[in-house]
Amino acid sequence: MGLDRSLEISVSGIEAQRLAMELIASNLANINTTNTIDGGPYRRRVAILSEKVLPSFADELSAAENRLTTRGGGVEISDIQEDSTPFPKAYRPDHPDADAQGFVSLPNVNYATEMTDMVFTQRMFEANVTAFNATKKMMQDTLQLQ
Question: Is the pTM of this model over 0.90?
């Protein structure tokens, strides 16, 4: 694997973690949204990350014979899923979205969970930036060899 491919893998991680952080920010922004366009409270969204599919051995061999470079490796957001946990209910009879019994369905967003996910995502983002910078430094040091 060349250094340029290492950079691509780090960039894929950075992009995936950026999107995951945007979803966390969206969840936190809608923590009190009880009525969405679809009707009902906001449902928490979660990014599902998966490994990028690497080329098969036959593809790698063919590329090597033709002196082509193949791409692969890294991470990608394979899906964005809505959390299926039930909505908590609160007794607020004066709320405009209250049902006949006076209960309001609240979003299934938990502040503590979102903050924990945010710290984890931030650390993964920083790890990918560190790996990117280390690879970049190796490339620069290689060019300065005499």
Answer: no
